[in-house]
Design a protein that fits this description.
21% of the residues lie in helices and 28% in strands. It is an alpha+beta fold. The strands form two sheets. It has a four-stranded antiparallel β-sheet with strand order 2-1-6-7, with no helix packed on it. The relative contact order is 0.19.
């Protein structure tokens, strides 16, 4: 519970200071020029304090799930919190949420945008993500 509160407060502070940025996202060769809050390239369903950001992700399907969170404002973010926890945000038909699956994703954005790769921060875009099918053996209880 304490970790969840810390995560929620850190998220709120970040949202208040963040300004959405112009980004170029190329998803399996299809180019998208967007103003976005973030681009998520996921192989699993959850991240950051239990948010089900990629509810349709299947770790062994050989595809990334890509979610582009477009030009969302503060109130839109607040309204998305419960659906994000439940994993129902993609079912809402929100035009500011783009979902695709892909084998290759390229992201380019201004230097202010920072990469976050599973909690590590390797720097700024440009970045290329390529899936390597069947590279991991998973044990599921």
């Amino acid at each position: 519970p304490n970790g969840e509160l810390t995560f929620a407060l850190a998220t709120a502070v970040s949202l208040l200071s963040w300004r959405n940025q112009p980004m170029r996202v190329v998803i399996d060769g299809v180019r998208h020029e967007v103003t976005a809050q973030q681009v998520v390239v996921a192989n699993g369903r959850y991240y950051g304090g239990g948010l089900c950001v990629a509810p349709r992700a299947v770790p062994d399907d050989g595809l990334f799930d890509v979610i582009v969170a477009g030009d969302l404002g503060l109130l839109e973010n607040v309204r998305l919190l419960r659906p994000l926890r439940r994993g129902t945000h993609l079912d809402r038909g929100d035009p500011k949420l783009l979902h695709r699956t892909a084998r290759r994703v390229e992201v380019d954005a201004p230097p202010r945008v920072r990469l976050d790769v599973d909690g590590e921060q390797p720097g700024a875009p440009p970045a290329v993500f390529e899936i390597v099918p069947a590279a991991l053996d998973l044990v599921v209880p």
